Amino acid sequence: MSSLLVCAATLLAACSEKPDSGPIVASAIGAAPALVDPAKGQLDPSARVLLDSTAQGLVRFDAAGQIEPGIAERWSVIDNGTSYIFRLRDAEWPDGQAVTAAEVVKLLRRQLVPRSRNILSPFLTAIDEIVEMTPEVIEIRLKRPRPDLLKLFAQPELAIFRVAPSQGGSGPFRILAQRGPVARLRPAFDPSRAADDQAAEPSTDANVKLIGERAAMAIARFDAGLADVVLGGSFVDWPIVLETRIAPIARRFDPAAGLFGLAFSNRDGVLANAVNRAAIARSIDRAGFTAAISPEWESTVQLLPEQLDSAAPPALAAWTQAPGPDDLSPRATIDAWRAANPGTITMRVALPPGPGATILYGYVAGALASLGIAAERVAPDAPADLRLIDEVAPYDSARWYVARACQPCGGVAQLAIEAAREAGSPRLRSQQIAAADAALASDVAFIPIARPLRWSLVAPRLRSWTANSRAWHPLNHLRPDTN
User: pTM for this structure?
Assistant: First the structure.
């Protein structure tokens, strides 16, 4: 067992198995949970969990990652998919005031204004306006059809959230108390349910203790029987789990859809040439890396996981094919460039901290060394030449994949991505997505490695935990009595 994990386990001390009843203890890998406005920027994983638990969107995800009602009890889509009409259910803010359509409209607009830093706003440009039709009904009018709109509105970043007064949302939980890294949650009163369905004083068994903490501490807490679930695991922290004796049945993986690979975030010097970028891409042992993390993690060489809404099957870059007899080796390709541009080549690789990322850096640095290129590991937000993208797709459109892989990309791909965004029909949109996918493959803008690795640790009593492609597990869907 690693020294870090031993230290964490020592701090937690020995304890007995948790009983099958009582409040759920959930550890979310990340900082202390805090209610943060998504309009101010990307949320920490534990902040996403807390926001999703205390503030619903118009719709939300259920245990299987499917759409279920949130503040909206029902909705309809009209005008060939360019109008979504939502009827709101009875809901309350933390101070007991009723949630109204007017305030919902105001709060949603806040997330979509040009100055908003909400990470979903670039994918919501099809929204023309959001209007109040009656005190219980709102309409979202679109410039063009967006069949995947509900999946975006189910994300925590679009939860209906009050900054002030009485910070928070309509539930399904309320913050009972918060101190340091621990937020204690209790079920929120739901005025849309019959009074006899809700006890005057709910049992504390339905409460949740949410802890935001480092992966090593969360894993040690679970290993000691002091937590029921660990949420937010990625490839970065998985090697720590392998150092424990946690039963295999408690180790759960999600079939996460999304991107895991390296984007060429700089196009100067040796990276100005697509042939050189292809030489680097070909040199990375992606299968060796994924096997080093987990034998069950499969590598990939294509950007799109499947065709999705593209007009063509996923494009494959030329570097993914076996080299021909006249093709230069990757080393010879880089040496030819170096002959015309003498000097040392150093490449900055932006990765998060953690043992899994250290393993990835070893494979990337080894590949670069084989080409005579020195590697330098830098922080995720530092200027870099290669930058890891490890993200779960918020909705199931190939446009999300091509847009996220363009960090940056060539002009042909950029034009096709923009044309797909502005397309007035599904057919034209799918054609432009296919063009962008092919252009990205030719441009070698992104090096696909795998699909995101997402894991949880789950105690047997949380029988409602369900693996899903969103890799999202709402706290109110972990067991039947928290629904």
Answer: 0.91
